[in-house]
Amino acid sequence: MRPKIIKDVLISERAIQKKTQELGRKISKDYRGKELVIVAIMRGAMLFLADLVRHISVPAAIDFMFVTSYKKASKSSGAIRIIKDLKEDIEDKYVLIVEDIVDTGLTFSYLKKYLKAHNPKGIKICTLLDKPSRRLVRVKPNYVGFTIPDEFVVGYGLDYLELYRNLPYIATLTDKAKGRLKGNF
Ligand code: IMP
Ligand code: MG
């Protein structure tokens, strides 16, 4: 049964599985012969990462970063805080950031600068979702699962007030549920 806060399923479990396979194959081709470090941005990327890496056939180290953004306080300040940093040494390696969604682009642009300072050979990003209409900074993800309209979504790693990350699909919220988000997003 679907939770009451859900309006519609925007992207089905099946569509996500098909897409992760497609992306994994493409990434495997592009990174053949390169030393790859996958950096998953938690907590949103947890489900996507787990499915994606099963379709990546080249050797890859997997690392995690936990970050939070202060969107509530000021929409455009985009202060990002690192809660947990990298463990792996990425110098001279190819970094692939794995994200749940690129929205304003502030997180991605911050991470790119931050990781660049560790001198990797390259930095790219693979995001399950892209919401280009909400950009505050000009960034373009290298691998995109689905481009979606300006609508708050939940499930498959993405949360609504810290809940529903475990839904196997991506869904939109009812107006009532959206109302409770005000000031939190
Ligand atoms: P950005 O810095 O604005 O690109 O935001 C990226 C982060 O905002 C994501 O990693 C999510 O945690 C969160 N976010 C953006 N849009 C949504 C959404 O529609 N649902 C849930 N979380 C979102
Ligand atoms: Mg996130």
Bound molecules: inosinic acid, magnesium ion
Structural class: alpha/beta
Averaged pLDDT: 94
What is the gyration radius calculated from CA atoms?
A: 16 Å
State the total count of DSSP E strands: 9
Q: Give, in spatial order, the strands making up the sheet with the most strands.
A: 4-3-2-5-6-7
Instruction: Just name the CATH architecture.
Output: 3-Layer(aba) Sandwich
| CATH fold label | Rossmann fold
**CATH top level assignment:** Alpha Beta
Secondary-structure element pattern, one letter each: EHEHEEEHEEEEH
Q: State the major sheet.
A: 6 strands, mixed
- The helicity comes to 10-25%
Number of helices: 4
Separation, N- and C-terminal Cα atoms: 26 Å
3D shape: globular
Question: How many structurally independent domains?
Answer: 1
Note poorly predicted spans: none
Give the strand content.
25-35%
Question: What would you say this structure looks like, in words?
Answer:
This protein has 185 residues and is of the alpha/beta class. The chain has one domain: Rossmann fold (3-Layer(aba) Sandwich). 23% of the residues lie in helices and 31% in strands. It is built from four helices and nine strands; from the N terminus they run βαβαβββαββββα. The protein has helices at residues 13-30, 46-53, 106-116, 175-179; strands spanning 6-11, 36-42, 60-69, 80-84, 94-102, 122-130, 143-147, 153-154, 170-173. It has a six-stranded mixed β-sheet with strand order 4-3-2-5-6-7, sandwiched between helices. Strands 1-9-8 form a three-stranded antiparallel β-sheet. α1 (13-30) packs across α2.
